[in-house]
Design a protein that fits this description.
The structure holds two protein chains of two kinds.
Chain A lengths: L2 H25 L4 H13 L2 H26 L7 H18 L4 H30 L3 H23 L21 H6 L8 H18 L1 H11 L1 H6 L4 H27 L11 H11 L4 H24 L6 H14 L2 H25 L1
Helix pairs in contact in A: 1-2, 1-14, 1-15, 2-13, 3-8, 3-11, 3-12, 3-13, 4-5, 4-6, 4-11, 4-12, 5-6, 5-11, 8-9, 8-11, 8-13, 9-11, 12-13, 12-14, 13-14
Chain B lengths: L1 H5 L1 H23 L7 H23 L2 H27 L4 H24 L4 E2 L18 H5 L5 H19 L1 H11 L1 H6 L4 H28 L1 E2 L6 H11 L4 H20 L11 H18 L20
Helix pairs in contact in B: 2-7, 2-10, 2-11, 2-12, 3-4, 3-5, 3-10, 3-11, 4-5, 4-10, 7-8, 11-12, 11-13, 12-13
Classes of the chains: A mainly alpha, B mainly alpha.
Chain lengths: 358, 314
């Protein structure tokens, strides 16, 4: 698909999502212009809030990359939430068990979380590769297995002093938050995860565009039978793509649970995993598109609290807008047809005008 | 043994909403539309019935419960049409559309609940009261297991199950509906309107999923809080584990419902204290994965499920 077409469909979905949100604000008796003004100011107006936006975007970049990477191989990874939980649980476990200097601690936590996420996704990947079990169903099942794993493991082994429903606080020497970054952004949630996310964007872009592995993965995604005929090992690539996709979601788990948050809550399937689908769709599955879409959703996430404090609009409007955007991104065929029509008209106009000039 | 018998009514209470939602999924998937929006449609049903019952109970008493159930079904149908339009007319990816509906449902209902009540929760004054069936509940063993502390909705849903079985397997309508999920081109050639059939099937799945959410509210939860704790996905697992068959679903939902109930009471019942909760809770998902693996060669899944129907490809 041409990038102008992707941009057009993405913008159309965003605009419709914002219109949907505006209608909801109107129906519930609020002023949408005022609401959006506070929403965007809340995400951007000073360094602290901008840092929070980047902090939210960090998780979304990584889950968006995870979903997008699987999409490129023709796989639908709806299990980024579960893989995030697996990565986050590993990160929390390492952070609360090991006692090492921060320089050693962080690499161990990051690699551990990535491997845990990769393992969690490799199971559906292998099931798909060997038994042709549909990855959508398998990753949904893995989501809920992860949910219950966290639900029972955290209170049993990593419980905090106060509540049964969350882990102990992540100590400073194990947190992805670092003082210079927190100071620079005036005490916001931003953490080293943003650098992990940016590096991941670059590496995934290189893998997809510049390596044989990327070429094979995309070939499997375009047409697995043609790829097989060309001598590409399809099962191996399917399992590998899921593994890498899960590794990215595992990194999101580390960035969220030991960076953005101070501890791990139980009984929550992180929404970022599903938001990742929206990010991937809007970003047209390209790594840089994912980064841009994640930044936009980051604004919605960090601005909604401010908006809700300044107006009577409940903060859940942010999630509603994201959900509406996903719906319209899914039905993008509408806008694609519209785009084709507009382009045809422009072309026709040009032709008539050149004819007239001649 | 006595403990096992005494938890039966709770297990049945937990099974019924699961069965209702899974039956909804059955209609949709049998017609060729994958519906992972069950969870979201249940949330919608739970929300709408909570609002209705909360507002009408002071005037109508327990009649309001039935109106709430009906309202939940209508809301479920209305919302499922979003999924139908996307996946039938616009040929969208059905999994993405379903995910979007799950997210819209979760966010929108809490948004509205906060606007209405100020908090994200809505309490209802009263739900259905579990009653013993006269005479039948006196039968030894079976009586306490199946006929004590039952909800009215349980019997309604068992009737719906039986009707669904006949509708899907013994009527021309059911044959056509299933044909749309197996081989829509052939169904179309035989004069069946695939689009209409799929709309009807998705609508029925919306009604049943909405009803399922409302049943949770009027039986054991009595509070709307913005989610149904993953029961929609558990229903999806039950649909697969039951191999897309009504009786299979009855078996699988009861199996899963029983496991979940044991996990829920294991803290207070000494007999179950040694069974780790994680094993019981994760069990439905693990056995579903195992079933998918074992039946991968002989899957009963509707062949055309998940594929948009394009008449031009006939």
């Amino acid at each position: 698909m041409k990038w102008t077409k992707s941009l057009f469909t993405a913008l159309a979905a965003v605009v419709l999502g914002l219109i949907g949100g505006a209608l909801l604000m109107l129906v519930t008796g609020s002023n949408p212009i005022e609401g959006y003004a506070y929403l965007f100011r809340g995400g951007l107006m000073n360094m602290e809030r901008f840092g929070n936006t980047l902090g939210s975007a960090t998780t979304l970049i990584l889950t968006g990359l995870s979903v997008a990477f699987a999409f490129k191989t023709g796989l639908f990874n709806i299990g980024a939430s579960g893989q995030m939980l697996a990565g986050g649980l590993m990160a929390t476990a390492l952070a609360l068990t090991l006692k090492l200097p921060k320089e050693l601690m962080l690499p161990i936590i990051i690699v551990g979380a990535m491997l845990a996420g990769a393992l969690w996704a490799a199971i559906p990947g292998l099931l798909k590769a060997i038994f042709n079990v549909h990855e959508v169903v398998a990753t949904i099942m893995m989501n809920w297995i992860a949910y219950w794993m966290v639900y029972y493991t955290v209170p049993a082994y990593f419980k905090g002093p106060m509540l049964e429903t969350e882990s102990a606080r992540i100590p400073d020497y194990a947190s992805l938050r670092v003082s210079w970054l927190t100071k620079l952004f005036q005490g916001s949630y931003i953490n080293l995860g943003i650098f992990i996310a940016i590096i991941a964007v670059i590496i995934i872009a290189i893998i997809l565009d510049k390596t044989t592995l990327g070429y094979e993965l995309k070939a499997v995604g375009f047409n697995r039978y043609a790829a097989e005929y060309a001598g590409i090992n399809v099962p191996k690539n399917v399992a590998l793509a899921m593994g890498i996709s899960g590794g990215l979601a595992g990194l999101a788990g580390a960035a969220f649970y030991v960076g953005y948050a101070y501890n791990m809550q139980i009984g929550v399937l992180p929404a970022a995993g599903f938001d990742g689908i929206a990010v991937a769709l809007l970003g047209a599955n390209s790594p840089w598109g994912v980064a841009a879409a994640a930044f936009f959703f980051g604004i919605l996430h960090s601005g909604k609290g401010y908006m809700s404090a300044m107006t009577h609009i409940p903060p859940d409007i942010g999630d509603t807008i994201i959900a509406i955007i996903i719906y319209f991104a899914a039905t993008s065929i509408l806008f694609e047809n519209l785009y084709e029509k507009i382009m045809k008209k422009i072309k026709a106009n040009k032709e008539t005008s050149t004819e007239a000039a001649a | 043994m006595n403990t096992l018998i005494s938890i039966f009514p709770y297990a049945i209470g937990f099974t019924i909403p699961l069965l209702t939602a899974a039956l909804g999924g059955l209609y949709s998937e049998r017609s060729g539309v994958v519906n992972i929006a069950l969870e979201g449609l249940m949330v919608i049903g739970s929300f709408v019935s909570a609002v209705i019952i909360h507002d009408l109970y002071p005037y109508l008493g327990s009649t309001s419960l039935w109106i709430g159930l009906l309202g939940a079904m209508i809301a479920g149908i209305a919302f499922s049409m979003l999924h139908a339009v996307a996946s039938i007319n616009l040929k969208a990816n059905q999994v993405i559309s379903g995910t979007a509906i799950n997210m819209i449902a979760g966010a929108l209902t809490v948004f509205l609940a906060r606007t209405i009540t100020g908090s994200g929760n809505i309490h209802i004054q009263m739900g259905f009261i579990p009653t013993d069936i006269p005479l039948l509940s006196k039968i030894p063993i079976i009586g306490p297991m199946f006929f004590t502390k039952t909800y009215a909705t349980t019997w309604v849903m068992l009737a719906v199950l039986i009707i669904s079985y006949f509708l899907l397997y013994k009527t021309p309508f059911g044959l056509r509906l299933r044909a749309c999920g197996e081989h829509p081109q052939t169904a179309d050639a035989a004069g069946v309107n695939v689009y209409t059939m799929r709309y009807i099937a998705v609508g029925i799945s919306g009604a049943l999923a909405g009803l399922a959410g409302a049943i949770i509210l009027v039986t054991y939860s009595s509070e709307f809080n913005g989610n149904v704790a993953g029961l929609g996905f558990l229903a999806l697992a039950a649909l697969i584990f039951g191999q897309w068959k009504p009786l299979g679903i009855l078996g699988s939902t009861f199996f899963f419902g029983f496991a979940a109930t044991i996990a829920n009471v294991s803290q207070v019942v000494p007999e179950f204290k040694n069974i780790p909760g994680f094993i019981l809770k994760a069990f439905p998902y693990v056995v579903t994965l195992a079933a998918l693996m074992i039946f991968s060669k002989s899957s009963q899944a509707p062949r055309a499920a998940g594929e948009p129907y394009d008449q031009g490809k006939r």
